[in-house]
Amino acid sequence: MEEQSDNLLMKQVQAGDSSSLAILFERHHQALFQYLLHLSRDRSGSEDLVQEVFFRVLKYAHSYDPEAAFRVWIYGMGRNAYFDSLHKRRKEVKGVEMSEVESGEPAPEEMARRKQNAAFLKAALAKLPGEKREVLVLSRFHNMPYDEIARVMQCEVGTVKVRVYRALKELRQQFAKATGEKLYDA
């Protein structure tokens, strides 16, 4: 239902209604920011990229196909903006911040263990190559279905499945390395 609403809003943007763009921004800027943050590992750069994406939405509104999913289109724009910025800067990006997983009030020992595991997971995720990190961010952090990921990444669904499998396998290996655990099936 919201997807239809996004499509309707985008049709209004195509007709010159900038207030519809503001609604789309409010709906999607936080998730888009998290996606770009996971890709770039640069908070201020990700904020700039979100702004760039919405400028591009306005600039390229005429190219939007109302039959397509808006989320796929905007994530594709986000991905393109990210890679465009990489080509412009040609340097390493620094740091990573991921939102912490919140839970109920577990015991202090459990909270310490979870915090340590989250730090190990962040470190392991940061060590993955960009393409593997991207596919995990989309599938696991943004709960995007494989067919939508395939459209964002401009590849086949089968390719996405293979990439997710390989990325999870490498993430598990990196996590095991960080924690000192032995992997028996790797």
Features:
single chain, 186 residues, mainly alpha, Rna Polymerase Sigma Factor, Chain: A, Arc Repressor Mutant, subunit A, 73% helix, 0% strand, elongated
Describe the protein:
The protein is mostly helical. The protein folds into two domains: 88 residues, Rna Polymerase Sigma Factor, Chain: A (Orthogonal Bundle), CATH 1.10.1740; 72 residues, Winged helix-like DNA-binding domain superfamily/Winged helix DNA-binding domain (Arc Repressor Mutant, subunit A), CATH 1.10.10. Helices cover 73% and strands 0% of the residues. It has eight helices and no strands. Helix 1 packs across helix 2, helix 2 crosses helix 4 and helix 4 packs across helix 7. About 8% of the residues have low confidence.
Structure in a nutshell:
The protein has 8 helices and no strands.
What's the pLDDT, averaged over the residues?
Answer: 82
CATH homologous superfamily assignment of the largest domain: RNA polymerase sigma factor, region 2, helix turn helix motif
Looking at the overall shape, the CATH architecture of the largest domain is: Orthogonal Bundle
C-alpha end-to-end distance: 42 Å
Structural class: mainly alpha
Output the radius of gyration.
18 Å
Low-pLDDT segments: 91-104
